[in-house]
Design brief:
Number of domains: 2
Strand content: 15-25%
Order of helices and strands: EHEHEHHEHEHHEHHEHEHHEHE
Radius of gyration: 18 Å
Number of helices: 13
Number of strands: 10
Shape: globular
CATH topology of the largest domain: Rossmann fold
Distance between the termini: 22 Å
Structural class: alpha/beta
CATH architecture of the largest domain: 3-Layer(aba) Sandwich
C-alpha cells in the first residue's frame, strides 16, 4: 500500500488549497487535517502553535502514512515550520518532509517582478516578520507593507460573512495609501475573500492567492523528488478530518471547498502516537 500527501491547516481555510491541489494533481491519495479545536492559531503563543503542529504531524505521519505534509497554515509556516523541519522531523521522521507556503508565495511575487508588495495575515504571521525576512534574503530592494487582520478567520469560519466587507475596508485602506502593486493573502482562509478584496483594491493591484500558487509549486517539487512520488498511492482519493466538528463547521467546509464533502472528527490525544 502506498503513502499519502497530507495537508494541514489550523482550521478549514486550507480546504481551498486542498481543492486546488486535488484539481491540479489528480492521482496521489491525500488527507486533510484541520485543527478546528484550537483555531485561531494566529492569537496563540509560538510554543502552543509548535505543540499543536507536532500533534498534527504525529497524526498525519503515523495514522495516515503521509510521505510529506503541506502546511497550508501561514501562521505555522511563519513561526513553527523551521523548528518542525530541523527538530521534529530529524527526531521522529527523518525520511519524511514538511513543506510550507511562505517561500513559494514570495517566489511567485518575485517572478512577477513586483517591488512594492502588500501583505495581510494573522497576528502571529505578521509578528514573526517572516515574509520580510525571507524577502531580504532574496532581494532587499523589494518593499513589503504588512497589516495584521485578526478578525477575518473567525468571521469566515463562524458565518460572519455578512459583516466582513466593512472589516476588510478598514484593513485594506492603509495598504491602498502605500500604492502597492500586489497583495499577498497571507492566510489560506483569505483565498475565500479574493474576489471581494480585488473589487476593493481595483484592477491595478494584483491579488496573490495561495490556492493559485501552491499546486504548481507542489507539482514541481514532486517532479524533482521522485523518491517521494514513487512511494505515493494513486487512487485519487482525498479524506477530510478535523479535531472538532460543529454544524457551523460542516456548513463552512462545504462553502469553502465548493461542494459537499464528508468531514470526520478525530481526537488527538496527548499520549504519543495514540489516537481515537
Amino acid at each position: 500500500m502506498g503513502m499519502t500527501i497530507g495537508i494541514f491547516d489550523s482550521g478549514l481555510g486550507g480546504l481551498i488549497i486542498a481543492k486546488a491541489i486535488r484539481s491540479h494533481i489528480t492521482q496521489p491519495d491525500m488527507v486533510y487535517f484541520g485543527d478546528t479545536l484550537h483555531i485561531p492559531y494566529g492569537n496563540r503563543s509560538a510554543e502552543a502553535i509548535y505543540d499543536y503542529s507536532c500533534r498534527a504531524m504525529d497524526y498525519l505521519f503515523n495514522v495516515h502514512d503521509c510521505a510529506l505534509v503541506i502546511v497550508a497554515c501561514n501562521t505555522v509556516s511563519a513561526c513553527a515550520l523551521r523548528r518542525l523541519q530541523q527538530e521534529y522531523l530529524i527526531r521522529s521522521f527523518p525520511e519524511k518532509r514538511i513543506l510550507g507556503v511562505v517561500v513559494p508565495t514570495l517566489e511567485c511575487a518575485i517572478e512577477k517582478g513586483y517591488k512594492n508588495i502588500g501583505l495581510i495575515g494573522t497576528n502571529r504571521t505578521i509578528l514573526t516578520n517572516v515574509y520580510e525576512e525571507e524577502l531580504q534574503k532574496i532581494n532587499p530592494e523589494i518593499q513589503i507593507h504588512q497589516i495584521n487582520t485578526p478578525l477575518l478567520v473567525p468571521m469566515i469560519e463562524n458565518e460572519g460573512m455578512q459583516w466582513i466587507d466593512k472589516v476588510l475596508e478598514h484593513y485594506l485602506e492603509p495598504l491602498l495609501e502605500k500604492n502597492i502593486e500586489c497583495l499577498i493573502l497571507g492566510c489560506t482562509h483569505y483565498a475565500f475573500l479574493k474576489e471581494r478584496v480585488s473589487a476593493m483594491l481595483g484592477h491595478n493591484v494584483d491579488i496573490l492567492s495561495q490556492d493559485e500558487i501552491i499546486p504548481a509549486k507542489l507539482e514541481s517539487y514532486l517532479e524533482k523528488h521522485t523518491e517521494i512520488t514513487e512511494r505515493l498511492s494513486r487512487d485519487g482519493q482525498i479524506q477530510f478530518f478535523v479535531s472538532d466538528i460543529t454544524p457551523g463547521y460542516q456548513s463552512a467546509s462545504e462553502k469553502i471547498y465548493g461542494n459537499k464533502i464528508e468531514i470526520h472528527k478525530t481526537e488527538l490525544c496527548t499520549v504519543e502516537n495514540k489516537y481515537k
